[in-house]
Amino acid sequence: MSSFKEAETEETVTCLHLTFYHPCQEEKTMFRCLNFGKREQVRADEAAKFGRDSSVCRYNLLDTRVSRIQFSLQLFRRLHTLEYCFEIKNLSKKTKLTVNQTELGYLNKVDLPWKCIICFGDYQVLAEIQEGESMDYFETHLHLAEAPILQERCLPSLQPIPENGISPSFFPSQGKSPTEIDENEL
């Protein structure tokens, strides 16, 4: 019988949580090939590819507006650190991909932030990285959002309030343009 001290340490696994949304997901079946709610292992030396072509892509989106290979996610380790990260590469010649408003053209790639929103066409994907230590593989855990991840918000136009706290709307400008005044002149 081996003792507790001799038992191997359990290795944690890096997990990429991806939450998908499409405005027509109720009527169409674009997500029917994705295994939501189940963790899947991906070898660390493989890229996780997303797209329409099931012979090339591990994660299939059944939509003619999605490219054969839309994008890939690749695990890597930063030089001189133990930190594991992902890079995302746009593999679509026709559709731009955005990662937190950074637009990627064909073959452009960026490091995936630990939490970000990936958009292409009408698709929205929330990506969240759960750190781990395994060098052999990582896991993906796919989820389906019930509401849009990224929503257009109409915020009222905010006017700056001067340091004295009095809003300039109380004083008519009388057609004068703003002028700078040296604080010593007050």
TrEMBL record:
It is found in: Cytoplasm. Its main location: cytoplasm. Residues 49-121 form the FHA domain. The keyword Lyase does not apply. Residues 166-186 are annotated as: Disordered. One of its GO terms (biological process) is innate immune response. Residues 166-177 have a biased composition (Polar residues). CDD domains: FHA_TIFA. Keywords: Cytoplasm, Immunity, Innate immunity. GO terms for cellular component: cytoplasm. PANTHER family: TRAF-INTERACTING PROTEIN WITH FHA DOMAIN-CONTAINING PROTEIN A, TRAF-INTERACTING PROTEIN WITH FHA DOMAIN-CONTAINING PROTEIN A FAMILY MEMBER. Belongs to the TIFA family. This is TRAF-interacting protein with FHA domain-containing protein A. The gene is Tifa.
